[in-house]
């Protein structure tokens, strides 16, 4: 019995086939091999064709079927790029390209809504400013493409669209998805009347709401024949990529944290009570296991200048041809704190954690007599860890007790120095696992279909790679962190 997980990313679609009994990944595939195109008709715009995602899914499924039979698939789960707007007509045909997460055109619409509805009211009910999220993107369509807007039957998120295609036309969504679009009122437990009323949206535009873990719909016969999947296979889970990344690490309980450290860094923590950051430095959404009876919110922190800072150090500072592991070894040759050198890694644009200020990257405290390449590299690794800890303090201020940080064994979390530093300055245990988004979606499908009784049952076979405990003497790290915060000046 297999579980099939899809991860609908911006650059590609990934598919994973998981053995429901053993938890082992039987096969995986992705399509395309190069990054999928993003349409940018004007500066600051970013769009993708929903039909492209569907074609990529079919190709990824074909590649998967060449590695293993799909005849025993018992359930399907979907992870997807968050915040994208898909507008479909009554037949389920997309009316325009999807305005995806990194498109910036809707900012003025969200900001105007924040002012008109009232900042405090927005934060109390939506837990965020409408900002540049899906509702604001729809407002742009309404004002700039009124004839097209009039043809919209339902608005969907990317994962909703894929589920609709698999099922042959079922248009459904989730509370978690609606919350990431700024359509959900947490205080009243309903679609936000304030947002819908301010923008002039009919609630008829909202698809049927189904639980995140449930038999939401089933694969229709025509699609089953095309993909080689049994007809009637339940589609039993969907979640945005960051909540799904947390799920893939079994981050479901208050105080648990899921982190990634690729080009940018993401920290996603679970909060057990309704709360928000008054300065909107982090975003709060319904986590995949949030229900009316159990508050589980995902607090999302994004840091732009993480892995890209490390990559810059490799290109610019490290000896030519040096690998990342060799860089790590070089950094280990100097003491904690890099003998007074600090790197501020915020060189990849405005940082939300700094209230959207673009402070740039900087190297502070250079002593020409003692500092070498090894110091710069160590200070960069520490600075990246410090930026994570700085953002996590906002989560702590919101009432989150951070005890465990879980991450995939990849990118910055392959670096022992980075992991030790992060554990020391946060006081949290770091647990590293072998997993990814498509595998997490497959497990989610198993939970939703009732194959597993809960997430602990589903992830009992999750492959553990390493555990990093805070060192007994944390003071050298804390001293370096305090100096870094002082130099940041925020």
Which short descriptors sum up this protein?
490 residues; alpha+beta; Nucleotidyltransferase, domain 5; seven-stranded mixed sheet; six-stranded mixed sheet
Would you spell out the secondary-structure blueprint of this structure?
Blueprint (H helix, E strand, L loop, with lengths): L1 E7 L4 E7 L5 E7 L15 E2 L1 H16 L7 E8 L5 E3 L9 E2 L7 H11 L1 H8 L7 H11 L1 H4 L4 E3 L1 H10 L4 E2 L1 H6 L3 E2 L4 E2 L1 H7 L8 E2 L3 E6 L2 H7 L6 E7 H8 L7 E6 L3 E7 L11 E4 L10 E7 L3 H10 L7 H8 L10 E5 L13 E5 L8 H25 L6 E5 L7 H11 L2 E6 L2 H12 L6 H4 L4 E6 L6 H14 L2
Parallel strand pairs: 1-5, 5-14, 9-12, 15-21, 21-22
Antiparallel strand pairs: 1-2, 2-3, 4-7, 6-8, 10-11, 13-14, 15-16, 16-18, 17-18, 19-20, 22-23
- Nearest-angstrom radius of gyration? 23 Å
Number of distinct beta strands: 23
Number of DSSP helical runs: 17
**CATH architecture name of the largest domain:** 2-Layer Sandwich
CATH level 4 superfamily of the largest domain: ATPase, nucleotide binding domain
Q: How big a fraction of the residues is strand?
A: 15-25%
CATH class of the largest domain: Alpha Beta
Low-pLDDT stretches: none
Strand order of the largest sheet: 17-18-16-15-21-22-23
Helical residue percent band: 25-40%
CATH fold naming of the largest domain: Nucleotidyltransferase, domain 5
| Biggest sheet descriptor | 7 strands, mixed
Shape: globular
Number of domains: 2
Structural class: alpha+beta
Q: What's the end-to-end separation, in Å?
A: 53 Å
Overall pLDDT confidence? 96
């Amino acid at each position: 019995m297999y579980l099939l997980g899809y991860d609908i990313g911006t650059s590609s679609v990934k598919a994973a086939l998981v053995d429901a009994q053993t938890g082992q990944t039987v096969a995986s595939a992705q399509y395309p091999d190069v990054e999928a195109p993003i349409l940018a008709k004007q500066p600051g715009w970013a769009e993708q064709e929903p039909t492209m995602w569907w074609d990529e899914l079919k190709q990824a499924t074909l590649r998967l079927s060449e590695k293993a039979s799909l005849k025993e698939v018992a359930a399907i789960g979907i992870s997807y790029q968050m915040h994208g707007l898909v507008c479909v007509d009554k037949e389920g045909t997309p009316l325009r390209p999807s305005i995806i997460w990194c498109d910036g055109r809707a900012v003025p619409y969200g900001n105007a809504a924040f002012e008109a509805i009232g900042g405090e009211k927005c934060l109390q009910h939506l837990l965020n400013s409408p900002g540049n999220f899906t509702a604001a993107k729809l407002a742009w369509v309404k004002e700039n493409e009124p004839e097209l807007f009039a043809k919209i039957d339902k608005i969907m998120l990317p994962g909703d669209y894929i589920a609709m295609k698999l099922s042959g036309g079922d248009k459904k969504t989730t509370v978690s998805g609606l919350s990431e679009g700024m359509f959900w009122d947490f205080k009243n437990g309903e679609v936000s009347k304030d947002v819908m009323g301010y923008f002039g949206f009919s609630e008829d535009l909202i698809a049927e709401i189904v639980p995140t873990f449930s038999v939401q719909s089933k694969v229709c016969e025509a699609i089953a024949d095309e993909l080689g999947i049994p007809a009637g296979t339940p589609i039993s889970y969907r979640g945005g990529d960051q909540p799904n990344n947390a799920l893939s690490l079994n981050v479901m309980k208050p105080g648990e944290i899921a982190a990634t450290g690729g080009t940018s860094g993401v920290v996603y923590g679970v909060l057990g009570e309704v709360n928000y950051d008054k300065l909107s430095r982090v975003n709060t959404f319904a986590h995949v296991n949030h229900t009316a009876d159990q508050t589980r919110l995902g607090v999302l922190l994004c840091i732009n200048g993480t892995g890209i800072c490390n990559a810059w150090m490799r290109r610019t500072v490290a000896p030519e041809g040096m690998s990342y592991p060799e860089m790590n070894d070089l950094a280990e040759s100097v003491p904690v704190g890099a003998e007074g050198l600090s790197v501020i890694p915020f060189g990849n644009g405005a940082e939300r954690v700094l209230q959207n200020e673009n402070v740039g990257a900087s190297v502070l405290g250079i002593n020409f007599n003692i500092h070498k390449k090894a110091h710069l590299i160590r200070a960069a690794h520490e600075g990246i860890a410090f930026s994570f800890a700085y953002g996590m303090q906002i989560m702590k201020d919101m009432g989150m007790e951070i005890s465990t940080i879980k991450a995939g064994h990849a990118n910055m979390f392959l670096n022992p120095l980075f992991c030790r530093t992060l554990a020391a300055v946060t006081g949290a245990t770091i647990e590293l696992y072998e997993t990814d988004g498509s595998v997490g979606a497959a497990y989610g499908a198993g939970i939703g279909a009732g194959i597993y009784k809960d997430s602990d049952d589903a992830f009992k076979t999750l492959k553990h790679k390493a555990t990093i405990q805070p060192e007994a003497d944390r003071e050298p790290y804390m001293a370096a962190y305090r100096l870094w915060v002082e130099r940041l000046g925020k």
